[in-house]
């Protein structure tokens, strides 16, 4: 093994995963583990321990000790570790992407794209000497100056989801590190291997022990983090019920929290839209990553005369989508995370039928040759979905697209806004006036105009409204900097006559 390289996959990925605490790889004392199954092949290739509250306590105390000195390290020196981390991530991009595909099910190219977004956040956080700057006013009154400084919080934690195991921790981790905080990362118990590999790279950075730590586990581990008095802030991405619960428990314990929840993202297709382009982009949005992303478009609302031409093209695109193992060439849609997830998706399609929707393209009960045991859900198109039904409001989190219809743009905007979520909404149109009205009146934090996945670049915050987000400050960019720092105001006066005494 060369310095700066992850451990060999064959020798480590069939073993029980480790925690990374106080600068050392440690074997969890947990007696219970969960199997990590490759959803594309059904191969059992790792076990994740369910770490105890005591192990969380050990990590939190180590972070508290590390913070005393880490916060004093100048920001230009802190970001040197991030420059090195960016290089290691670049050098190991394909290896990490392969790991992500093996444990998550998405395609290799999707995994590479995810890790590219992770690297972008490291790059942005390298600008922390400027992003963290405060403000100064001279002579707010005669001879009195006022300053605002940003100082780190202390020990922070990140609770990661399964669907983007490589990217989402980096919405938070590099900013916490660069602003002078320490962080404990708790990967999803469904997809913990990618972060295991990332921390094998972090182990080579030479960070002071306790600054960045990895603790594996499930619900009990999360609750120990939320209840620990040393942890001052929690960042989390997951389902809306989980986000709401974590936000409430964090607040009850006096912690800052930013909790990204679920979504049910709609798109309006106007009659003047380029139907060929819209179909291609929307198929990628709905069925890419097997629909397992919070920015997947899952509801198509055709407006006026767009109904028939879009329906026909999208049905054809749904049927033509190539489903298969994510590491094989040409695959466009990989596996969903588990057999349980596949069964849940198929059950929800049945609910849609019971509500009166028609299954225009049915992806249930199909197999991928050579991977018959894999958790493959083929793209499914639902038509005539009742706007007030359960399926219209439920996050399916799979490759299922629902079609509805309205007569006017105003009716479409009203339908978009009649929902609990507010993560993303999109419109496809050739009209600037329609696009402007849509972006102004739509209740969503991320808006796409002729865009299928309106994912903010790392230098913009990942916005989200309503039941899609609980908190005030989002991940990425200046929101992350503000979240991981607290402001200190200094008002000072230095009379000349005082200095003459010395």
Can you offer a commentary on this structure?
A seven-stranded mixed sheet has the order 14-15-16-13-12-18-19, with helices on both faces. The chain has helices spanning 9-12, 53-70, 75-91, 93-104, 108-125, 128-131, 173-178, 193-202, 219-227, 240-252, 275-287, 307-320, 339-354, 390-393, 409-417, 432-441, 477-483, 496-499, and strands at 19-21, 24-26, 33-37, 44-49, 135-141, 144-152, 155-159, 182-186, 212-214, 231-237, 256-260, 265-269, 297-303, 358-361, 380-383, 400-406, 421-422, 424-428, 446-449, 465-466, 469-470, 485-493. The model is unreliable at 7-13 (pLDDT under 50). With 502 residues, it is an alpha/beta fold. The protein is globular, with a radius of gyration of 24 Å.
- In quaternary terms, these chains amount to single chain
Gross geometry: globular
Distance between the termini: 62 Å
Question: Any idea what the radius of gyration is?
Answer: 24 Å
* Main pleated-sheet profile: 7 strands, mixed
Overall mean confidence score, pLDDT: 95
How many helices in DSSP terms?
A: 18
Strand content: 15-25%
Structural class designation: alpha/beta
Overall strand count: 22
